[in-house]
Design brief:
By secondary structure, this protein is mainly α. It has a domain at about 5-65. About 85% of the residues lie in helices and about 0% in strands. It contains three helices and no strands. It has helices spanning about 5-20, 25-45, 50-85. The longest helix has about 40 residues, at about 50-85.
Protein backbone atom coordinates (compact mmCIF):
# COMPACT_ATOMS: atom_id res chain seq x y z
CA UNK A 1 0.00 0.00 0.00
CA UNK A 2 1.38 3.40 -0.96
CA UNK A 3 1.65 6.32 1.45
CA UNK A 4 -1.26 8.03 -0.35
CA UNK A 5 -3.43 4.91 -0.01
CA UNK A 6 -2.57 4.64 3.68
CA UNK A 7 -3.37 8.33 4.16
CA UNK A 8 -6.69 7.92 2.34
CA UNK A 9 -7.56 4.86 4.47
CA UNK A 10 -6.68 6.87 7.58
CA UNK A 11 -8.95 9.73 6.46
CA UNK A 12 -11.72 7.22 5.73
CA UNK A 13 -11.48 5.88 9.29
CA UNK A 14 -11.49 9.39 10.77
CA UNK A 15 -14.51 10.34 8.67
CA UNK A 16 -16.37 7.16 9.68
CA UNK A 17 -15.70 7.91 13.35
CA UNK A 18 -16.87 11.51 12.93
CA UNK A 19 -20.08 10.29 11.27
CA UNK A 20 -20.67 7.77 14.05
CA UNK A 21 -20.27 10.52 16.65
CA UNK A 22 -22.71 12.71 14.73
CA UNK A 23 -25.26 9.89 14.67
CA UNK A 24 -25.27 10.00 18.48
CA UNK A 25 -26.31 13.67 18.61
CA UNK A 26 -29.69 15.26 19.25
CA UNK A 27 -29.34 17.12 15.96
CA UNK A 28 -29.15 13.83 14.04
CA UNK A 29 -32.12 12.38 15.91
CA UNK A 30 -34.15 15.51 15.12
CA UNK A 31 -33.14 15.35 11.45
CA UNK A 32 -34.13 11.68 11.29
CA UNK A 33 -37.49 12.49 12.84
CA UNK A 34 -38.11 15.25 10.30
CA UNK A 35 -37.16 12.87 7.49
CA UNK A 36 -39.76 10.37 8.72
CA UNK A 37 -42.37 13.13 8.78
CA UNK A 38 -41.48 14.10 5.21
CA UNK A 39 -41.69 10.47 4.11
CA UNK A 40 -45.13 10.11 5.66
CA UNK A 41 -46.32 13.29 3.92
CA UNK A 42 -44.98 12.16 0.57
CA UNK A 43 -46.54 8.73 0.91
CA UNK A 44 -49.98 10.16 1.56
CA UNK A 45 -50.29 12.95 -1.00
CA UNK A 46 -48.52 11.76 -4.15
CA UNK A 47 -49.27 9.24 -6.84
CA UNK A 48 -46.85 6.31 -6.99
CA UNK A 49 -45.16 7.79 -10.07
CA UNK A 50 -44.73 11.18 -8.37
CA UNK A 51 -43.50 9.45 -5.22
CA UNK A 52 -40.88 7.55 -7.20
CA UNK A 53 -39.64 10.72 -8.84
CA UNK A 54 -39.51 12.66 -5.56
CA UNK A 55 -37.71 9.75 -3.84
CA UNK A 56 -35.09 9.68 -6.59
CA UNK A 57 -34.52 13.44 -6.43
CA UNK A 58 -34.29 13.47 -2.62
CA UNK A 59 -31.90 10.51 -2.67
CA UNK A 60 -29.64 12.23 -5.22
CA UNK A 61 -29.68 15.45 -3.18
CA UNK A 62 -28.82 13.50 -0.05
CA UNK A 63 -25.89 11.78 -1.76
CA UNK A 64 -24.66 15.12 -3.06
CA UNK A 65 -24.82 16.74 0.39
CA UNK A 66 -23.06 13.74 1.92
CA UNK A 67 -20.27 13.90 -0.66
CA UNK A 68 -19.85 17.66 -0.18
CA UNK A 69 -19.54 17.15 3.57
CA UNK A 70 -16.94 14.44 3.11
CA UNK A 71 -14.92 16.59 0.72
CA UNK A 72 -14.99 19.52 3.17
CA UNK A 73 -14.00 17.23 6.05
CA UNK A 74 -11.07 15.76 4.13
CA UNK A 75 -9.90 19.18 2.99
CA UNK A 76 -10.05 20.44 6.56
CA UNK A 77 -7.82 17.58 7.69
CA UNK A 78 -5.38 18.21 4.86
CA UNK A 79 -5.31 21.93 5.68
CA UNK A 80 -4.69 21.12 9.35
CA UNK A 81 -1.77 18.86 8.50
CA UNK A 82 -0.36 21.45 6.10
CA UNK A 83 -0.62 24.14 8.76
CA UNK A 84 1.05 21.99 11.42
CA UNK A 85 3.88 21.12 9.03
CA UNK A 86 4.43 24.78 8.15
CA UNK A 87 4.47 25.69 11.83
CA UNK A 88 7.11 23.01 12.39
CA UNK A 89 4.93 20.93 14.69
CA UNK A 90 5.00 17.97 12.28
CA UNK A 91 8.04 16.77 10.39
Amino acid sequence: MTNQEEYDAFLDRLFACACARYHDTQEYRCQTSRQKQLDALLNSDLTSQQKTLVDEVLYELSLSAERQSEIAYRQGLRDGVWLLKNLGVLA
